[in-house]
Design goal:
Blueprint (H helix, E strand, L loop, with lengths): L15 H7 L25 H9 L13 H14 L3 E5 L2 H10 L7 E5 L4 H13 L3 E5 L4 H7 L4 E7 L11 H9 L4 E5 L4 H4 L9 E5 L1 H5 L7 E5 L1 H15 L5 H33 L4 E5 L9 H7 L6 E6 L2 H11 L4 E2 L9 E3 L11 H6 L6 E5 L5 H13 L2
Parallel strand pairs: 2-3, 2-4, 4-5, 5-6, 10-11
Antiparallel strand pairs: 1-7, 6-7, 8-9, 9-12, 11-12
Helix pairs in contact: 1-3, 1-11, 3-11, 4-5, 11-15, 13-15
Length: 401
């Protein structure tokens, strides 16, 4: 074969849509058009001296796919370009990203503060897992800046939040919270999965670390699991790289390759899904059988003005509360034909779930109500179908209530 020796392009000079097609590509000697898929566990060295240099860091190159792989590295670089981060590390799932981002920073005797409005598994990490290892945690009302200030301690190492929140799409003031936690020398980790990296940039707002479930919009087609952690080079090297290397929550090269393909179409998918989400939210808000609609792109959203400052759009998720509680919500969901019942989100297919019996079922009823998750609430992830077909489907659901 002949070596592919054309100089690599500097994707940092391009706009996001171009970066998502060309960013991070490292072609092999074959000069392939699509990104190469390196399904390998290990790598061969030219000499014992080179192997020794790889392990000391004196020789650049890959050692073992648990903590470094060419296909995974392409995905990490492309995500860093999109997010505006200095560095990124990919993980096997979104929850692996959350766990690594938090566990990589703390030790016994440390303290973590988090918003009370979190995905159920994230609450488990903060409330149950961290305390097993001697890390105390405090949950606060994410909207109440005074509670963030009051919760901080000298041993607080990091704070964690989602915005918009899962499932009721509350929007938290990332910049203000970042200022507060930085005041005691702590870091801020933001789960940005609902907004997507196209609609919100937490690092620009002062966050130290951003995490995603790449399973959601980044893949966006229901194919594979993945996660990613982004931040400064110092943050990733200090808190994340060693943790991944030694504990192994690693993304498979095949999944990294699938996610690279997903990134190529991300802007097109998000633009269409967001446009449809706005139309569906407006339709639902006009219906008498709907108690409330939560969508950051609507003026009746409680944090609409904050969302306009912090986000570039309302994104792809809609939360709605059906009058009549769980029984009415179940009748509504069961009558849908186009929209499928699933606890996943960010897919090309529109999906709906009942949070109080799925994603947040392990919480007590009191805890669910405390974060606004009622028995009549449904979370709708808007897909790529025609918006009018989706509205017709919602009408079928409403007719059954």
């Amino acid at each position: 074969m002949s070596a592919y020796d054309r100089p690599a392009i500097d994707a940092k000079t391009f706009r996001p849509r171009t970066q998502l097609v060309h960013g991070g590509v490292a072609r092999s000697g074959f000069g392939e058009t699509s990104e190469a898929l390196f399904l390998t566990q290990g790598f061969v060295y030219n000499s014992a001296e080179q192997a020794a240099g790889r392990f000391t860091g004196e020789d650049e190159g890959f050692q073992y796919s648990r903590f470094g792989n060419p296909t995974v590295a392409m995905f990490e670089e492309r995500m860093a370009l999109l997010e505006g981060a200095e560095a990124a590390r990919a993980t096997a799932t979104g929850m692996a990203a959350v766990t690594t981002a938090l566990m990589g920073q703390v030790k016994a005797g440390d303290h973590v503060v988090a918003s009370r409005a979190l995905f159920g598994s994230c609450l488990y990490i903060v409330q149950d897992l961290l305390p097993r290892f001697g890390v105390e945690s405090t949950l606060v009302d994410g909207h109440d800046l005074a509670q963030w200030k009051a919760a901080l301690r000298p041993n607080t190492k990091t704070a964690f939040l989602e915005s918009p929140t899962n499932p009721n799409l509350s929007v938290l003031d990332i910049a203000a919270i970042a200022d507060i936690v930085h005041g005691v020398g702590a870091t801020l980790v933001v789960d940005n999965v609902f907004a997507t990296p196209l609609m919100q940039k937490p690092l620009e707002l002062g966050a130290d670390c951003v995490v995603y479930s790449a399973t959601k919009h980044i893949d966006g087609q229901g194919r594979c699991l993945g996660g990613v952690i982004l931040g400064s080079k110092a943050f990733i090297e200090t808190h994340i790289q060693v943790y991944i290397r030694q504990t192994g929550p690693s993304l498979s090269p095949f999944n990294a390759w699938v996610l690279l393909k997903g990134l190529e179409t991300l802007p097109l998918r998000i633009a269409q899904q967001q446009d449809s989400a706005q139309k569906l939210a407006d339709f639902l808000a006009s219906e008498a059988k709907i108690a409330r609609v939560f969508y950051p792109g609507r003026p009746d959203h409680p944090q609409y003005e904050l969302a306009r400052r912090q986000m570039k759009g309302g994104s792809t998720m809609v939360a709605l509360e059906i009058k009549g509680g769980q029984a009415a919500a179940f009748r509504f969901a069961n009558a849908l034909e186009v929209i499928k019942i699933s606890n996943n989100l960010g897919d090309a297919k529109s999906l709906i779930t009942h949070p109080s019996t799925t994603t947040h079922q392990r919480l007590t009823e009191e805890a669910r109500l405390d974060v606004g998750v009622t028995q009549g609430m449904l979370r709708l992830s808007v897909g790529l179908e025609d918006a009018d077909d989706l509205i017709d489907d919602l009408k079928r659901g409403l007719a059954a209530v």
